[in-house]
Structures are given as structure tokens and as C-alpha cells.
Amino acid sequence: MSLSRYNEKRNFKHTSEPEGKIGKSENQLIFVVQKHAASHLHYDFRLEMDGVLKSWAVPKGPSLDPEIKRLAMMVEDHPYSYKDFEGTIPEGNYGAGNVIVWDNGTYLPSSEYKGSAENKLKADLHKGHISFIMKGKKLKGEFSLVKLRGKDENAWLLMKKEDKYATTADVLKKNKSVITKVTLETLEKKSAQNKAANEKKKLQKN
Ligand code: MN
């Protein structure tokens, strides 16, 4: 049900993004952060919950500096299999542009809880304040997402908590995909070359 908005926005004949289906990790909950050059560059921060990826678009990207709070706009739930999506969303489609998997890993609630980790996270999300430990390749340690009370109901803040992983060093300088090791810039170049080659082929056929 929660994936209907995701499916409505996309035509799966034209985009290689996965169709919206519920999926689940066997053991620990996963997270993924994608770097996405759509009309504006942003990072998509996604947390597995309830068989989908709860998603926020973070225009300036995550930071490991506890002094820095980053605006995170909640967007539609994405399917679990989106965790592996890397590639080009063709022109004319929703979110057109290139995507790399900038970071991934597992995550869990940072405070004590009874029952399942997932239920704790869901309850905190519902309250608009969720704190969790990230075990990624780039993002590590405790983070919080806090809903802003005010005009925009989708506006949240993403922030790092003080711990041994906190640093003022800019984590966004680590700019390669954790899956393929390509940068977004390399992917963009390749995708532009492929497009040009395809157009040339079409012309030659005519
Ligand atoms: Mn995006």
C-alpha cells in the first residue's frame, strides 16, 4: 500500500528502477544513501522499515559533524530492492538523472527498547524523532532524524550525535559508489556517451 505513490510516479517500461514491491532483510535492517544528480544534486537517505525504504532527500548530504544539521525532506517510500539501484533514469522520467549507491550498511535503534528493533524505530518515526546507530562504510555511529514542527510537514533535520565517529572532516569527499567504485561524474560521462552512441545508430538506420 505504501508503495503506490512510488509506482504512480514511474513508468517501468521507461526506467530501469525496480518496480515497487515489499521486501525484507533476513537479519539486520539495512540503510542506503544514494547520490542522485536529478534537476538538483541531492543525497537520498533511506532506512528499511516494514518492508520498504523510508526515504528523505537531503540536498546538502549527510555530515559527520554534530554541529551541522542537514535539511532532509521526506519523500515517498521506495521499494526494498531500490537499495541496489545504481544507473541512469532516462530523460522525461521522474527523477531523471544518474544515481550511485554512495553508502550502505545496517542500522539499529540507539536507545534501549523492548520488543523488536523495527517496532521501536517505527514508533519513533511516528513520533517524529528517531535516533539510530549506522554501520556503513562511510556513515558510522549515532544519528538522529527530527521532524520540524512548522509549515512543511515533510521537513526533517538529519544530524550526527557526538561519539567516536564524529568529525569535522567532510565525509562527502569520499565520492565513490560503495558497490562499483565509480563516481557520479564518471557515470554521467558514460551515460552521455551511451546516449550519443545510440542517437548516432538511430541516424545511421534512417
Ligand atoms: Mn532522489
Number of strands: 9
Compute the average pLDDT: 94
Which blocks of ≥5 consecutive residues have pLDDT under 50?
none
The SSE order reads: HEEEEEEHEEEH
**Tell me about the biggest sheet?**
8 strands, antiparallel, barrel
Strand content: 35-45%
As laid out across the biggest beta sheet, the strand order is: 1-2-3-4-9-8-7-6
Small molecules held by this entry: manganese (II) ion
Query: What is the 3D form?
Result: globular
- Count of DSSP helices? 3
Structurally, the number of domains stands at 1
Radius of gyration: 18 Å
Category from helices, strands and their pairing: alpha+beta
Helix content: 10-25%
| Distance separating the two termini | 45 Å
